[in-house]
Specification:
Strand content: 15-25%
Strand order of the largest sheet: 5-6-9-8-7-10
CATH architecture of the largest domain: 3-Layer(aba) Sandwich
Shape: elongated
CATH topology of the largest domain: Rossmann fold
Number of helices: 11
């Protein structure tokens, strides 16, 4: 969709604009709002859109009143507010309170545009973009479902919550990451030779992958390092809360309070309880070797 927006804008000599919403519509409209987690924060989304060639990002506040707007009213808003000459939609997007698809809109909207659209020097038109198939081996169509290989945010969320970060990365087209501030922990890792940076996320609604140990990239102080990240409850030491702890390989600086970004490469193993701290230390040594590999 973004490629279609950018290429169309370049051909027309116009701006490539993305209109998005905040907060996420599901946090406003659905009963699972407390459990729902997002794949990108608003700032991450803006950065990704800019990298894709988008010239401008417009953020509309999403409320229940806004959600009551019909598809035609919403398209009229895009025309009036942003002078939209072309609206690009996904093949299965539904917009407006009447939840119209591109097929319904093409028939209804194109045939009876409001006068302001008809009189424009470049009338608003619609363009549909088809599904993007996913060729990752584990997404093969073994189930016989014709949509089994089609990328969706639901499938990405499921892969992450099950720890399948490589598969999620393949669908996303980039390495999934977390971004937050380094906060003080109990410093137990330092006593075992594996000091960790405990992360407090800047966006609390960000989806955190399944508990376990991961090979990651760690970006701090303007440099990217290799690292290993443990997500979980720290059962060996009787942890009571879920934490995100990253040991940055070949790094020894005080970074408390500084921003840290990690990107997931591969899941190394499940989190588990060890019989002693010495057994845990030996496992961490193996984990570090696996992460380096």
């Amino acid at each position: 969709m973004l490629s279609a927006v950018v290429s169309s804008a370049r051909e027309r000599g116009e701006e490539a604009v993305v209109v998005t919403f905040w907060p996420h519509p599901r946090t406003v409209l659905q009963q699972d709002a407390r459990e729902f987690r997002i794949l990108t924060s608003l700032e991450e989304k803006k950065a990704l859109l800019a990298a894709a060639g988008i010239d401008r990002v417009e953020v509309l506040p999403f409320t229940r009143a806004f959600a009551a707007m019909t598809a035609e009213a919403y398209l009229q808003l895009l025309r009036d507010k942003y002078d939209a000459s072309l609206v690009v939609m996904g093949y299965d997007n539904r917009i407006g309170s009447d939840r119209l698809t591109i097929d319904a809109l093409t028939g209804a909207f194109e045939s009876r545009k409001p006068s302001s659209l008809r009189s424009s020097s470049h009338p608003t038109s619609l363009l549909a973009v088809g599904p993007l198939p996913f060729t990752w081996p584990r997404a093969a169509m073994a189930s016989g479902d014709p949509n089994a290989s089609v990328i969706s945010s639901t499938k990405i969320r499921k892969a992450l919550t099950e720890g399948r970060v490589e598969e999620a990365n393949g669908m996303l087209g980039y390495r999934y990451g977390l971004y937050g501030a380094v906060v003080a922990g109990n410093q137990l890792g330092r006593t075992m030779g594996f000091p960790t940076a405990n992360m407090q996320l800047y966006e609390p609604l960000k989806l955190v992958p399944a508990n376990g140990v991961y090979a990651v990239e760690a970006e701090v102080l303007g440099t990217t390092y290799k690292g290993m990240c443990n997500i979980g409850m720290r059962p060996t030491v009787g942890g009571a809360t879920r934490t995100i702890e990253t040991h940055i390989l070949d790094f020894d600086q005080d970074i408390y309070g500084l921003p840290l970004r990690i990107r997931f490469l591969r899941r190394i193993r499940d989190e588990r309880k060890f019989p002693s701290l010495e057994a845990l230390r030996k496992q961490l040594m193996l984990d570090a070797l696996n992460c380096k590999k």
